[in-house]
Every structure is written in structure tokens, then in C-alpha cells.
């Protein structure tokens, strides 16, 4: 097979077509066509590197053919042949993508020089394109590797969160189920607030382990049916700090720390452990505080029945601005976030 660069000469007149072919045939693989439609058809079967084409042809003029060729083969260079009368047209053709033009009568050396220049441009374009393709290929490989790494990290994260949740379950089954429901409601509230998807997921995970510190609290206090003594209550209040100690050694759980530490703060500053108030309380914690309270009220406990939805709503209303962030609790009160 001829491995030389391919040139197609399109001219309706035999004499110039042949004379150019004679000049080029020793260096390049040359084919000829007597009209643009025929040449374009030939290119569809066998694309070429460069076209040398007359401007004035009866079936399709060179400018129309040039645009057609550039549309179908943007990398093929086109050199137009022109008589002096259509020199302006040839110059205009450059902006339609022609590489150059040759003025009749042709000089053999001119033909060779312009054709070689055109092919050299084509070669460097092809080289650039090849480099670009290689770079794009590498970028897409890297992207795939990053996605795989990200999904491994995510699996590791989910696995760790699940292990922690199961640890809570082993200790206190109520806390386990409660944490799962708080996670779902927190995600709904975060969604209603319009926070980004990634943040919703982080809040959901944080909410699911918000009570992880209860692992470190005496089981008898956790499961006590009656009223807690002051000492027992003081003991219970240690669970946010214990929770932080558990997760702070796991770098990708750091996002959960604000929720674990602050889910018993109150909007008016009368909560614990730090007594911070309003927007000093991280948004994620302000969300979980509401979800935590709602689920606690809706759950039956050994010492009391579950509250009805109406009573939960009334409690929420009564504590707007004192216990709860008014902006977030409003999503529950106006029904945008459903509790059932
Ligand atoms: Fe808690």
C-alpha cells in the first residue's frame, strides 16, 4: 500500500489537472477528479491530506466545494487554482479555510512549495491533535482513577459509620433506631434549607452517629425508666464530649464533630455542653437538634407514650427561638418537611 501523503487534484480541464499531477506524482500519492461533486465523493471513500482545486468549475464552483470539503474534512488542507481574473475570490477563500492559492500559469517550483507547506501544516495539526488525544485519554484515565478512589473512600466512610451505629445498637437498641430516624429527618430538613447534596449526606451521616458518645455512659443510666438524679443527668451530659473523642481519631468523620458536640445546645444558649446560642451553633447541629427532639417526642418510652403529631407541633411552636432555630423549625410547622 502506498504510504505517501495523499493529494487530490480537482479541475474540470484536463490540461492543468494533468500538468499538476505530473509535478506531484513522484513525491505524493496523487488522484484526480474532473469536478467537485466527483472529488467530494472520492474523498468520502478515501480521505486525502490535501486538495488542489480550481476555483472556476461548471458543476460546483471551487468556493462552494471548499466549504463542503472543510465541513466534512476539517483537517484536509485546500489549495485553490485561480486565473488572474478571479484573484480576489481566491484571496477571499482564505477566510473560508483555504490554505493558499496558486495563480495561473503555474510554476512547477511554486506548486511544490505551496503543496509542501500545506502538507507541513497538516502534519503539525495532526501531531497536535494526536497529542491532544493522548492528553484527553490520560485525563479520562485519571478521572476514572479519582472516581474509583472516591468511591473506595466513600465505602470506607459508610462502613465506619455503619460499624459505629451498630456499636450503639449493641449498647442501646432505642438509641440505634432513634439515630436512624433522626438521620432521615435531618437530611429532609437540610434538603428543605437548600444546602448542597454533599452537605446533606454529611449531615445525615453525622446525625446517625450524633449519640455515639452514649457508648461511654453507664447502661443503667441510659436505660433507667424513672427520673434521673442530678448526678445521673450530669453523667448523661458527658456523651457529646465522649462522642467527639471517639470520632476525632478518624479523619473523614471530622465533619460529624460539630453535630456530635453541639446537638444538645439550645437556640437561647441554655443548652449544653458549651451553652452557645443562635448562629454560634453550627447549622448542622441546629438541624439535628430539631430532628432529635421531634423523634424523641414521637417515640414511646417506658415512662411515657409517644406524643401525637398535633402535640409535637405544639411543642415545637412553644419552643421556637428558645430551643429551636426559628428558620429551620418553620419547615416542619408549615408542613414543607413532613413528620410522617
Ligand atoms: Fe444526645
Describe the model.
This protein has 2 domains: 6-137, Rossmann fold; 172-333, Hypothetical protein af1432, CATH 1.10.3210. 58% of the residues lie in helices and 7% in strands. It has 14 helices and 5 strands. It has helices at residues 14-24, 36-45, 62-72, 87-93, 108-171, 173-193, 197-208, 219-222, 230-236, 239-247, 257-262, 283-298, 309-318, 326-333, and strands at 6-10, 29-33, 50-54, 77-82, 100-103. α4 (87-93) links the parallel β4 and β5 (100-103). The longest helix is centred in the middle third of the chain and has 64 residues, at 108-171. The mean pLDDT is 91. It binds fe (ii) ion. Residues 211, 239, 263-264 line the site of fe (ii) ion (FE2).
SSE blueprint and pairings:
Blueprint: E1 6-10, H1 14-24, E2 29-33, H2 36-45, E3 50-54, H3 62-72, E4 77-82, H4 87-93, E5 100-103, H5 108-171, H6 173-193, H7 197-208, H8 219-222, H9 230-236, H10 239-247, H11 257-262, H12 283-298, H13 309-318, H14 326-333
Parallel strand pairs: 1-2, 1-3, 3-4, 4-5
Helix pairs in contact: 5-6, 6-7, 6-12
Fe (ii) ion (FE2) binds next to loops.
Characteristics:
single chain, 340 residues, alpha/beta, Rossmann fold, Hypothetical protein af1432, 2 domains, five-stranded parallel β-sheet, 5 strands, 7% strand, binds fe (ii) ion
Amino acid at each position: 500500500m502506498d504510504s505517501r501523503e495523499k493529494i487530490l487534484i480537482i479541475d474540470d480541464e484536463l490540461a492543468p489537472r494533468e500538468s499538476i499531477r505530473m509535478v506531484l506524482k513522484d513525491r505524493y500519492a496523487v488522484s484526480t477528479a474532473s469536478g467537485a461533486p466527483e472529488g467530494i465523493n472520492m474523498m468520502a471513500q478515501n480521505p486525502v491530506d490535501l486538495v488542489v482545486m480550481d476555483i472556476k468549475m461548471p458543476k460546483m464552483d471551487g468556493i462552494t466545494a471548499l466549504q463542503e470539503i472543510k465541513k466534512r474534512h476539517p483537517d484536509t488542507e485546500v489549495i485553490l487554482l485561480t486565473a488572474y481574473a478571479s484573484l480576489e475570490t481566491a484571496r477571499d477563500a482564505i477566510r473560508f479555510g483555504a490554505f493558499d492559492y496558486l495563480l495561473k500559469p503555474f510554476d512547477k517550483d511554486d506548486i511544490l512549495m505551496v503543496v509542501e507547506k500545506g502538507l507541513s501544516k497538516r502534519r503539525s495539526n495532526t501531531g497536535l491533535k494526536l497529542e491532544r488525544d493522548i492528553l484527553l485519554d490520560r485525563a479520562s484515565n485519571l478521572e476514572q482513577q479519582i472516581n474509583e478512589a472516591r468511591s473506595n473512600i466513600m465505602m470506607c466512610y459508610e462502613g465506619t459509620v455503619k460499624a459505629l451505629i451498630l456499636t450503639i445498637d449493641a449498647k442501646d437498641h432505642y438509641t440505634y433506631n432513634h439515630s436512624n430516624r433522626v438521620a432521615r429527618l435531618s437530611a429532609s430538613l437540610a434538603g428543605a434549607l437548600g444546602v448542597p447534596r454533599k452537605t446533606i449526606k454529611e449531615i445525615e451521616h453525622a446525625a446517625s452517629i450524633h449519640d455515639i458518645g452514649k457508648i461511654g455512659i453507664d447502661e443503667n443510666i441510659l436505660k433507667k425508666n424513672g427520673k434521673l438524679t442530678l448526678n445521673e443527668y450530669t453523667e448523661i451530659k458527658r456523651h457529646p464530649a465522649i462522642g467527639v473523642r471517639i470520632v476525632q481519631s478518624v479523619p473523614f468523620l471530622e465533619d460529624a464533630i460539630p453535630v456530635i458536640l453541639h446537638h444538645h445546645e439550645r437556640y437561647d444558649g441554655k443548652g449544653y455542653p458549651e451553652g452557645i446560642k443562635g448562629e454560634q451553633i453550627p447549622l448542622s447541629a441546629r438541624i439535628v437538634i430539631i430532628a432529635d427532639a421531634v423523634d424523641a417526642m414521637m417515640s414511646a418510652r417506658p415512662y411515657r407514650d409517644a406524643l401525637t403529631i398535633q402535640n409535637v407541633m405544639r411543642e415545637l411552636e412553644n419552643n421556637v427561638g428558645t430551643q429551636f432555630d426559628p428558620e429551620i423549625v418553620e419547615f416542619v410547622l408549615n408542613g414543607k418537611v413532613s413528620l410522617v
